[in-house]
Design goal:
This protein has 5 helices and 4 strands; from the N terminus they run αααβααβββ. By secondary structure, the protein is α+β, with helices and mostly antiparallel strands. Strand 3 and strand 4 form a beta hairpin. The longest helix is centred in the first third of the chain and has 21 residues. The radius of gyration is 21 Å and the shape is elongated.
Length: 126
């Protein structure tokens, strides 16, 4: 086998491994992550959540989202728009989240005791 042929085989093998890593691995990791998210029970603590799925992409303290700012501007709106819970968002790293979580983010909301009150998984995430 010539030297050039050997290098071509090495390059082809490396390209095949790279393609598998780019095409096959992300969906597998995403489905595994979703399975872990679905295993989080309502009432789990923040420490339990971090142990199961890791740190969130973004944390929103209670009352810090866009609609909270709107509600604080008017007494009438305060009556109809409830204050948002502390929310942890899990999603892509390169998204703009100035006004609150992205619509594609997986969200975990925590009550005043620091326990999971609700888990929100977008329909297109599965």
């Amino acid at each position: 086998m010539t030297r050039i042929r050997r290098w071509l085989l090495v390059i082809a093998a490396a390209a095949g491994i790279w393609l598998c890593a780019v095409i096959v691995l992300p969906p597998l990791l995403h489905s595994r992550f979703l399975a872990h998210v679905r295993s989080i029970p309502i009432g789990a603590t923040k420490q339990e959540v971090e142990r199961v799925i890791g740190s969130p992409t973004q944390r929103y303290p209670k009352g810090s989202q866009f609609f909270d700012a709107i509600a604080k501007s008017s007494l009438l709106l305060r009556l109809f728009i409830p204050e948002s819970l502390e929310t942890w968002a899990y999603g892509g790293t390169f998204r703009w989240r100035f006004l609150g979580p992205d619509e594609d983010d997986i969200l975990l909301e925590f009550n005043d005791q620091g326990r999971v009150a609700r888990v929100i998984i977008p329909e297109d995430a599965s």
